[in-house]
Amino acid sequence: xxxxxxxxxxxxxxxxxxxxxxxxxxxxxxxxxxxxxxxxxxxxxxxxxxxxxxxxxxxxxxxxxxxxxxxxxxxxxxxxxxxxxxxxxxxxxxxxxxxxxxxxxxxxxxxxxxxxxxxxxxxxxxxxxxxxxxxxxxxxxxxxxxxxxxxxxxxxxxxxxxxxxxx
Length: 167
Hints:
The protein is an alpha+beta fold.
């Protein structure tokens, strides 16, 4: 997807490798909102991880841009060992300053359009159990608990499934 504008919303486009640091910063800002004590300390290099995701030939990273600034990101690809008609949404973040402004909905709509164009029938994701805001957002978009992947008792993630609508 090169560029798309949802009426009155941000431009949704493919992320560029040189935007990895900006995307990593947005990712960490968004994640920090649902960890009660902040994002756990780590030596993990999120900038390199995002650059790798952007450059993956089998993956897609979309970003929502408004006034020249990245305000939302989505990363997806076929899950390891998964069927070709399934896509996994690995990361989906909107800048906390832009929550409830329609950015997430516009970005989700762009993801669904790409999944449909790619012949995907099902999307899956996991969401942190403490991230109630994201769970509510996904529910409004039509995601439901994944009956094939119930959470383990000691897991901190809920697994959701989405049926990609046909045109």
